Amino acid sequence: MLLTVSCRWGGQDDADGERPPGAPTGVTAQAGSATSVHVMWNRTAPAGSEVTGYEVYRGHIKVEQVPASTHMVDVTRLRPATTYVFTVRARDADGRLGPPSREARATTPAAARADTAPPTTPGDLGGR
């Protein structure tokens, strides 16, 4: 029994002679709040196939899927004071995924404590 496996991330041509899309460039991640991160990237240059969408990953988990016209997402439901690593992959019309982008890291800030103290009474009120 012979088993052959290929991920085709090395830029090799597919059986029909077309290459999967390239990796998105310029990926950045910035905390938007204690529970969200804003991820942005540059449009992928065609590598023989048209990009129809992008997939955003937190670690190895796909967290967002967007059309090719979108180059930014807000990833929500994150934990405060935690560092996250994001990558982006392009998908073409045939469903082929390109290689992952370079990693972008972001750390969410600590959650702000709830303000439960009542306001103070204004002092020395005088009219004119």
UniProtKB/TrEMBL annotation:
Keywords: Carbohydrate metabolism, Glycosidase, Hydrolase, Polysaccharide degradation
Region (Disordered): 9-32, 93-128
Compositional bias per record (Low complexity), positions renumbered to this chain: 106-118
Domain Fibronectin type-III: 23-111
SUPFAM superfamilies, per database record: Fibronectin type III
Organism: Actinospica acidiphila
Lineage start: Bacteria, Bacillati, Actinomycetota, Actinomycetes, Catenulisporales
One Gene Ontology term from the biological process aspect of the record: polysaccharide catabolic process
Keyword Hydrolase appears in the UniProt entry: yes
GO molecular function, one term: hydrolase activity, acting on glycosyl bonds
Name of this chain's protein: Fibronectin type III domain-containing protein
PROSITE patterns assigned: FN3
